[in-house]
Amino acid sequence: MSLVGNFAFNNYDATADRAGAGARPGETRRQSQIYYEPISDQPTEEHLRGLHRVRSSYSNKRRRSTVTSQPPQDAINLERTEDVEKTEEAIDDSLSDDEEDKRREDEVHTLARRLTTKSSYTEADQSPFEATGDSKLNPRSPHFNGKAWARAMLNYHLRDPKAHPIRTAGLAFRNLSAFGYGASTDYQKNVFNVLLESWGLVQRLLRINQRRIDILRDFEGVVYAGEMLVVLGPPGSGCSTLLKTIAGETHGFTVDSNSYLNYQGISAAQMHKDFRGEAIYTAEVDAHFPMLSVGDTLTFAARARLPRHIPGGVQKNDFAQHVRDVVMAIFGISHTIDTRVGNEYIRGVSGGERKRVTIAEATLSGAPLQCWDNSTRGLDSANAIEFCRTVRTGTEVNGNTACVAIYQSPQAAYDIFDKAIVLYEGRQIYFGPTTEAQAYFERLGFECPARQTTADFLTSMTSPQERVVREGWADRVPRTPDEFAQRWKDSEEHKKLMVEIDEYDKKYSIGGEYLKKFQESRRQQQAKHQRVGSPYTLSYAQQVRLCLWRGFRRLAGDPSLTFTQLFGNFIMALIIGSVFYNLGADTASFYSRGALLFFAVLLNAFGSALEVRYFLRSCHFQLC
Fold first, then answer.
1. How far apart are CA 104 and CA 480, in angstroms?
2. Is residue 594 part of a domain?
3. Residues 26 and 136 in one domain
4. Distance CA 248, CA 403 (A)
5. Strand ranges for 395-477 from DSSP E
6. Structural domain boundaries, residue 104
7. Are 266 and 515 in contact (CB under 8 A)?
């Protein structure tokens, strides 16, 4: 027997009842309970659960037969007739049960689709600025969801006809090389080495006795808008130089004139001049004003990129504060809004929180092309993965392009990326999908040890002590950086990459329609009085107003220096004024007036020296 029949926990056999056998003596069957619940537009949990228990009246009714001890022949014939009828009725009941089950499943699916549609509408079509309570779009809610907010913000932006079009910026590069110059000697900076250092400066300007140092050698690659590229390689292999070259931060080295870069129809020269803020480079070192609070630091970053028209007619300050709160909630630093950023000398947030402030500040720029140089340094594995997921959200929703250099990447973070590039002492030894990188090096004759992440396996190719050669391949695998680079040049993956770059160049020809679309989107975002060729979003007056606001916030954060200068100048003014009070108007006071001018210049020089010392201390330098 089994536990069947209207969820009744007894030994009643429903099959025997259908076949004509009556109930056992002393046992009666429990009547079926029928649930009649009206279907409304707002299905409840009880309603959905009740749908699985609904049994129609005609499918639950069963005829009961009367059993006698010694039935006559007519009764036996009558009972046989009834048995045939009951068998036919059982078949009809079985068919009715199947039809009823199918009807209930269709009804459940209909209600589920209706509920899903309403949930999607609530999240995607709601205004992010009007979210309150426990909404997923409210950055102060414990149920806040960054991806849901990004999608809602995008829909809200696209519905506004006055909002600027969303712009993207992919990247394709070919024959990319970078180099620098080094002198044979260098001098410690002191007073006596000024003459020797000046001669070295002349040599650098005239390129005399300069040794060329190749940093990047003949790189190729393509990253489409909406994709993420992970840059792998040990320190000193050129990861930072590659990211700086992509972002246009080429101070300190030179990009070869034969290098070709295509920023989705925009040349490298125009991208780095007219659209300098559209390709950003986030350095590994955190540089902030230590006296500013985290909230003020991120507010400045949000206000510096305010568009001309904000969707929904929201006030600019409200928009900046809302976006700031969203970014702080995404990176888990909402609790530090009133805490100083700090540095090595001034107490503030922790090192990991300061790193997240740097990431949040770069995120607020909204640049379509972002280069992150080891931005996960100082973060634990969970925060590093969350950082990669946040960057992925920007690429999926807004179409951003992200190039990220990570050392010791977790496997979960590596799986987020679309493409990978591996660098070995300035040579490119792989570029392609992340899912095919391991297989490429295994075909070369290397073996990935058990429980080693893919990122560590790729990085181990640059270390003779770490890479593991498969048995029987010791004399066939590449060993030097040049051999690895040559194997890459001869591979089928490289040939496919070159074909992909050619197709990219045909689709996004430099100076074509995509450049005009990018310029139009940029112009609609800029302030009304800002020139078209300017890399800044705000006008000059707006920039001055914003910098003055930050200056006053810095003064409020640390007024000690300013008040010390005011008090010292007040005291010195009283002393100097009393010494040179009531000078004569003849030539006898000539020397006294000269001394007065000397003291005025001397006091101002001392005041400036104090500011320089404070500035150097704030910028993490040590005064020798």
1. 68
2. yes
3. no
4. 14
5. 401-405, 419-424, 427-433, 446-447, 468-469
6. 14-123
7. yes
Does pTM surpass 0.70?
A: yes
Instruction: Identify any residues that bridge with 255 across adjacent strands, giving them in sequence order.
Output: 178
Local confidence band at 13 (pLDDT 50, 70, 90 cut-offs): very low
Give me the pLDDT at residue 35, please: 37
Token look-up 């305010």 returns 306
> Each residue of 193-220: pLDDT tens digit?
777 777 777 777 776 777 788 999 999 9
Is residue 346 within 8 A of residue 340, CB to CB? The reply is yes
Where residue 311 falls (left for φ over 0; alpha for ψ -120 to 50; beta otherwise) is beta
Three-state secondary structure string covering 552-579: HHHHHHCCHHHHHHHHHHHHHHHHHHHH
Determine the angle formed by the axes of helices 294-304 and 351-363, rounding to 10 degrees: 20
pLDDT in tens, 160-201: 888 888 888 999 999 999 998 876 666 677 777 777 777 777
What is the average pLDDT across 26-48? 40
H-assigned helices in 364-453: 381-398, 411-414, 434-443
Residue 8 placed within a domain: no
pLDDT digits (tens, 9 = 90+) for 527-566: 888 887 788 889 999 999 999 999 999 888 888 878 888 8
Mean pLDDT of the chain: 79
Residue 431 to residue 229: CA distance in whole angstroms: 9
**Residue 545 falls inside a structural domain:** no
Contacts of 331 (CB under 8 A, 6+ apart): 356, 359, 360, 386, 387, 390
**Token pair listed for 86:** 């009951």
**Closest residue by Cα to residue 28 from 6, 59, 53, 55:** 6
Joined tokens for residue 468: 């593991």
Task: Say whether both 60 and 154 belong to one domain.
Answer: no
In the chain the first and final C-alpha atoms are separated, in Å, by 92
Claim to verify: residue 223 and residue 359 sit in the same structural domain: yes
Q: Do 144 and 200 lie in a common domain?
A: no
Query: Please, are residues 435 and 415 in contact by the beta-carbon 8 Å criterion?
Result: no
Tell me how many domains the chain contains.
Answer: 4
The residues, any chain, with a CB within 8 Å of residue 388's CB and separated by 6 or more, are 228, 376, 404, 413, 416, 417
CA distance 536 to 596: 45
The whole-angstrom separation of Cα 406 and Cα 456 is 11
Backbone phi, psi, residue 117, to 5° = -60, -45
Q: Do 129 and 119 share a structural domain?
A: no
* Cβ atoms of residues 394 and 366 within 8 Å: no
Q: What is the distance between the alpha carbons of residues 514 and 523, in angstroms, rounded to a whole number?
A: 14
Q: In this predicted model, which residue has the larger pLDDT, 369 or 145?
A: 369
Same domain, 291 and 428: yes
Instruction: Give the tokens for residue 337.
Output: 């809004």
Here the tokens at position 328 are 């702080």
What are the b/e assignments for 58-87, b being 16+ CB within 10 Å? ebbeeeeeeeeeeeeeeeeeebeeeeeebe
Q: What's 381's domain CATH number?
A: 3.40.50.300
Is residue 539 in a domain? no
Rounded distance between C-alpha atoms, residue 467 and residue 456, angstroms:
10
Q: How many other C-beta atoms can be found within 10 angstroms of the C-beta atom of residue 259? A: 17
Nearest-angstrom CA–CA distance, 265 and 263: 6
Query: Do 352 and 244 fall within a single domain?
Result: yes
